[in-house]
Amino acid sequence: MNPVSTFTTPPPDKINRRTTVKHGVFATAPHQTGHTPIQNIHRRINLKHLKQTTNNPIYTLNREEFVDKVVTVDYNARGVVRHLYAAARQHAQQPLCAKAAEFLRVPGCVAVATGFRITRYGGAVESDGLVSSVLLSLWLELRGGEAVIFVEKGFEEVVKAGLDAAGAGKTIVKGLPQAYGEAAQILFNVLDQKKPSLFVAVERPGANEYGRYHNSVGEDITSLTSPVDRLFERMSGWKRPFIAFGDGGNEAGMGLIKHAVEKHVPYGSTCRCGCGEGIAAETTADVLVTASISDLGLFGAMAIADPQTYRQTIDHLIPTTRALFEAGAVDAYRGPSKPGVDGVPIEAISAVAHLLQPI
Ligand SMILES: [Zn+2]
What we know:
Elements: H1 17-23, H2 30-33, H3 37-54, H4 63-71, H5 81-92, H6 96-104, E1 109-114, E2 117-118, E3 124-125, H7 130-142, E4 146-152, H8 156-166, E5 172-176, H9 180-194, E6 198-202, H10 228-236, E7 242-246, H11 258-264, E8 287-290, H12 294-305, H13 307-314, H14 317-326, E9 340-341, E10 344-345, H15 346-355
Parallel strand pairs: 1-4, 1-6, 4-5, 6-7, 7-8
Antiparallel strand pairs: 2-3, 9-10
Helix pairs in contact: 4-12, 6-12, 7-8, 7-12, 7-13, 7-14, 8-14, 12-13
The protein binds zinc ion.
The site of zinc ion has 7 residues, from loops.
């Protein structure tokens, strides 16, 4: 139905000040405004709409809840985020991005682990995790800090291309090998030098109970994966908080809600490699943020921790992602030629990231 037809407007000669007061819409009587009756109808519709907008609950809702809601919309219809979020939320007893944001506000250096290998695209590194790690680095640098990003050996140049595109010049990238002792040595050398006060894992493989790493389709990727999740987990025992962002249940931090992963995620309790366990990660963290796409969880935490810097940061999202793809990153669902994250085109990721800004 045309909404215009629902209005009954008196003929012009019947419109007077009393009508104006009764409807509470016109600032002055219509005959004094110089508008035609049809223009007045349009003004009434627009003003009525504005009045409704002002009463829209979006202006009054809790911002921390709003951010969690935006990052847990199931954009790629994977079907697990509502279960993983419910479990993580119950564990945290507060909105998740806001809890992570409390830790992110630390000054100085932050150590970041990211990079999930996608076997069906030749073992290339996926974009989820990399995009937000690079933008976190920029966000930290704009606030006077910096990051050290740890990835598998061989993926350093991909991350550096993203950092260059974003303009995050202070952040360094370190490649880690698969051997635990060797990885630990490299990590500790960097930690001695940079002295990070916070550890962050985003879309980083998490070992299961038997120390095996799996991808989301239940395949064993242990021989291709550095155990940086377990090294980061040890840091929280040394009074260095460790916050983790994941979306599938097989990432660092998911040990906090392992029961939910085993129950609701395909291969969660039984993998395909025959190790006797599932893909559910055993690695815990001090804070776990579960989102529909891991990058979105970290965006949400940054948006709450420092909205103004976040606003500056996300304008770099699209060029940063394009640079990561040109250097070899892939979309885990759509491959190397369509810049995006977990099957969602980068323009849509950028739109969601912009939704997280305060209104
Ligand atoms: Zn297995």
